[in-house]
Queue: 2 jobs
Job 1
Amino acid sequence: MAVDIEELYRKYSPMVRRRCLQLVRDESMADDLTQEVFVNCLVYQERIRGEYPSSLLFRIATNQCINALRSLRRHPVDRSEEVLLAIARTDEEHGAYEARTVLDRIFRNERESTRVIAVMYHLDGMTLKEVAAETGLSISGVRKRLLALRARVQGMKEIE
Amino acid sequence: MSTAPDWLLERILLGEVPHHLQARAEQAMEIPANQERLKELEALHRSDRTAHPAGEAVGEIRRVADGVRRADSVRRRLARRRVWGAGISLATLGLCLVVLPILPPGGHAPPPSPSPPPTGNLGAPAVPASHASSVSDPSQTPGNARESPRTVPSAPTDLVAADLSTRGIRRKGEEVKLQIHIQEGMRVRRLTDGDSVHPGDRLQLSIRAERRVYVWIFSRDASGEIFVHLPESTHRFLALDSGFHALPHAWELDGSTGFERFWVVWADLSFPLGEWKERLRRLPSDADRLPLPPNFSQATLRLPKGPR
């Protein structure tokens, strides 16, 4: 089924742009990323099936933003700092250090889906069940990924 | 229940609350603060639609998507060709195996290659004789204070201490090639040494290796700052099989000006990067060769960088 990109854009671009802005904190970058989200949607339209477009677009936007933030590591000003702090605030018991390390891990060498899972869980405050439903994984799968991520972060911390 | 997050309220606003969020959404809407926020979001959506009309944006989205599809199709075609190429190579090899035993003794079969020189104590594959003979390494001279008896140091400390002068550099430029492409709107152009770049340019690095090697790719700008492009997550040289490898991420150049010099360093074994980086920082920022011990090779591209 062909995607009506104009209708999708008209209805969902405000949500997508707000999501991008929330993660990258830069309006022109959020505009570019919004466009990329819909480009992806058009290019890979055969993968769109049976879910609300808002769920899919939210997930694509999250992933695009994480990728964009990774490339921003090249910039002198690290915008991921904002996301870092947001994560630190949502996970006080682990503190800013761990949040920083978690994010670093997320941005550097975790699987794409794990990065999205971690952002949804830590930053968006979704429950395991909600993250599982959003990403199409099982709850135990999501839990395992998060636990493995935490263990790797803990391991890194001990090494350092 | 506290204030609902925006992502949930936006699903409510769009009328797309999935089953797993139904209960949470219903609870959220019982709270007046969430109802207020929902109204705010509705207004924000309206103003966003006014500021970003679909007509203009969708035209651009379609154009870009067409470009991406074309690029995907070219990539798939190239991948198919590689598969065919591998098949033909295997068939040729098979044919040689069948034909060679029937060649008469003293025929045209080439003489066996000379044995490679001995390797270091890490068991690294030997350097081809042709390369080894071209290496002029005064550190091998008896009595030289920097003499290093080993061709492959066993640890980074030894490796750095062995000799970090410019002696012993070998450039096996054909073994590993560093390629840099720049994105220019819808176009992608390959950069060569001396091509100019600007802050904000997006570069994609890739490697073509003739054989399995361990690589380290980094860049330095005019201020001497070092950025490691590969490996991304470990702190050792990364193993790459022979073939073409695009780095997983493009890089956007920062605002510094002067130049960007990209390096690929490769070896037959993996080494930790820590001390290397430390020593690099002490080199002049515009050094065009790295003082590498034997059995390490390098290739570099310098891209002058100025304001747009």
Job 2
Amino acid sequence: MVSNTHILNIARGDYEAFELLHKELYKRMFYFVYKLIQDKEQSEDIVQDAFLKYWDNREDFTDFLSVKVYLYTVSKNSVLHHIRDEKRHKRIMASLEFEETFSENQLLIATEIIAEIQQAINALPAQTQRVITLSMNEKKVEEIARELNISPNTVKTLKKNGYLFLRNRLAHLKVLLPFLFLS
Amino acid sequence: MNFDEKDIKIARVIIKKLCNPDELSPVDSDKLEKWITSSEQNRKLFERFKVKIPVEDYQKITALTDENRHLMRLMDTVKGSSTFGLAGRRRRWLGYAAGILVLITGLSLAFYLSRQSEKQTPLALNRIVPGQPKVIFELPTGEEIFIDHMIPSTKIEKDGFDLIVDSLNGRVQYIPKENSPQNSPALNRLRVPKGGEYSLELPDGTVVWMNSESSLQFPETFSSEKREVYLEGEACFHVATNAEWPFYVHTQQCDIRVLGTTFNVSAYRDDRVWHTTLVEGSVAIGRGGDETLLKPNEQYRIDVINGSCEVKKVDPELYTSWVEGKFYFKAYVFEELVTKLERWYDFKMSYADEEIKKRRFSGVVNKYQPLQEMLKFLEMTSNVKFKIEKNEVRASLDTNKEN
């Protein structure tokens, strides 16, 4: 997990800490941008530019939260630069797998929620990961059992254990709540 | 609309609401309620997530891109740019960045020169560096394993357990072997020396952040009835919830029964006041047969000298900011602040003027900077000045300064 210490190390030019930050945030940044422009190559470039821009300005940052906000902001601005066409933008915002039209802020919030939950899921055993993913997708126990070719009772157990684990895992977020700014 | 930190914070509140609705603090509940009612879209998004979290969609989309290839490309550019100027780099920011660099170098050089000629700055001569992740793991047999930031992340295998050391994060994970005896009461000890810090993940998923000069004892395997650990010094706990498997933190002055939660315990032998601060959840503190239940934002304080206890409302950030790499102090008596600094920087403070001890200071400072930066900050906000000699700092009143 990335902490403010890593951000301070990055400010001093620590490559390893920067790689860790990439590991933590790359996927969610890609998801965020891809949702807006739905083009793989361009999304990769935009995210790359955002990380580079942060590296260029790394000395200005002392905490993880503001780095996150910065990366999202830079990416969003590049995207807006990309999509000048208002209609196209509207259409894209409406296609977030949800029926309603959401704003970029809501997309950011959605991305953060999904990414944090996904990261917690990654720590589960493989079969439990599959059960949880399907169950979060509104699949019933019987459907999951059929799809994975296991007994409904196994699904129930894995589901129960999986959710218990996720709850504890995600509870750690509390401690990471950001504090006041540095002097 | 621009993004700000609130967007990320509200995402965290929503996760909490979805995962642990009972543990949501009143402040967070209120924030969430305000956010939900502030727009119809927000409400829809929240309702949507209550039913379905599109992790499958996330997995599909993120599978399109190759994270490692992207990282290699990024690191090539980053490293290339610092070694060979700007090879392969987009040149857009070049002019801009170089301008700033020159300007800053120019400024700091001018600043440095003026300071040099104005007065000798004793602070610049000696450097006392802040603490670093380091820890000693003591087995019941007396064997000791030293871990510090110099050793790479690794897995240490022993007869009864594995230690997974994450050097970058200063975290060690203790995993008993499956065939190790159940309910083994022999105690391991994790000892963090002066000028160190470390966090420990226990087999049940509980995480303990240990501050300088602290030690935690825990059994080789927890008993099936309860989880018990013994603390000396200061630690911040995040206990994995399990109603049927209570967690106890024992200190010399009191026993804390934990009901799934985040809290900080400060139990330093040489401190007059020992305290337990609850961030979230609930804990019960037992002392001499009495039990006191704490609510979030409350602190239980024991005066070790006269034995009195009280419960106080506090800002928990004041007591947990050390986990986040900060010293956060509000109207602290200087002497108390110094005790904390001494544990972290490993130096001794002496006073030319006793009166300084009782001065009060407030502020938030980054605890990973050298001591002189910290002292400079204190000098700036008061009329106390400092002189460093080897491992000793002398505090005196600056008579040139009104304050």
